[in-house]
Amino acid sequence: MRILIVDDNPTNVIIIREILKKEQYRDIVTAPSALEMLEHLGIGGATADLRPKRIDIDLILLDMMMPEMDGIEACRIVQQYDHLKDIPIIMVTAVGDSKKLAEALDVGAVDYVTKPINKVELMARIRLALRLKHEKDWHKEREQRIHDELKLAAKVQNAVLSSPIEEERFEVHALYQPSAELAGDLYAWYDLGDGRYGIILLDMMGHGISSSLFCMFIASVLKDTVTTYVEPEKVIQELNRRFNQLHIEDQLIQYYFTAIYVVVDTRMKRVDYVNAGHPPALFFSQDGTVMTLDQGCCPVGLFDRIHEMEPRSFTYEGEAHLAMYTDGLLEIVPGSHDDKLDFLKSRLGGSNLWREEEMKQQFFCGGPGKRAGR
């Protein structure tokens, strides 16, 4: 525990130091002026240009009235530095001007004591300031741990996403840009054999830890579900069943996710899909027509079983491409829902070749976004 005493009067310094020593506070540093205090903190004089360093001061007792720079101005300067502003500053003053005291508190001082120094009052205010600093430090460390864990969770979440496929008859690519540190979105694709591929894109309600955990649970059962049930209707029903196994007593929020699951048969040139409340995918045919793979049933997780599901199928000729995306892509486009779809059709159509840099420039640079897949 290190305390910095700042006062231009040596007698005041001696008095305060002796009070602190009798209370077992023996790690004491002194400075005869506010300017020397700033130098000690690394923000004044010859050290002003150095990078912020770890400061070993736990509390500052700062005289309000000093030549060259008063305590109020010095306190204001300290508060401008993130690595210093949490050091509690107690003003020591002989001034009875309530406006000056209010100004000192406004610029960042946590408390004040008046001269002549009252030992009981001084120690009570020091203990309070140190207790508050300890609690603040604890919360900062806890927040940092949570932040580090969220970054790790985001890396794990990225690791489960499917890698691109580039084969003679079939390619899958994706752009991934979460709008938050932990997202509730997921995409995956699987080789089902005989020239067939299953592709799924889902968007969990909300963001943050809870949505991410639900999303990771779905990721853990996805491959087994897709490769076992294959057909879109059966896959969505099974995901609904597995998701409802996560029943939480007295939950205040009804969690669910939208999804679109597509099976592409490259030999038969056939597409089967179910859209469970997800934004419509866009299928661009070789002849220039655009088909919207729109809603076929309600989102997953709202009911024990999904009724009135509408699995759909169509065939295509020649080369074509399919664009799948989450609602974050629609949100960056102004206008009505039809306007948004028209915009996406104009930007995602054209060549069947994967245009990653062009897609990034159009949808992610300079604006918010989630994920786009194609």
Describe the fold and architecture.
It contains ten helices and 17 strands. By secondary structure, it is an alpha+beta fold. Strands 2-1-3-4-5 form a five-stranded parallel β-sheet, with helices on both faces. Strands 8-17-16-13-14 form a five-stranded antiparallel β-sheet. The C terminus is likely disordered.
What are its keywords?
374 residues, alpha+beta, 5-stranded parallel sheet, 17 strands, 22% strand, elongated, disordered C terminus
Query: Structural class of the secondary structure composition?
Result: alpha+beta
Major beta-sheet overview: 5 strands, parallel
The side-by-side strand order for the widest beta sheet comes to 2-1-3-4-5
Beta strand count: 17
Count of helical segments? Answer: 10
Q: How confident is the prediction overall: mean pLDDT?
A: 88
Helix content: 25-40%
- Percent of residues in beta strands: 15-25%
SSE string: EHEHEHEHEHEEEEEHHEEEEEEHHHE
Low-pLDDT stretches are 367-374
Q: How would you classify the quaternary structure?
A: single chain
Shape annotation:
elongated
What is the distance, rounded to the nearest whole angstrom, between the alpha carbons of the first and last residues?
59 Å
Task: Return Rg in Å.
Answer: 32 Å
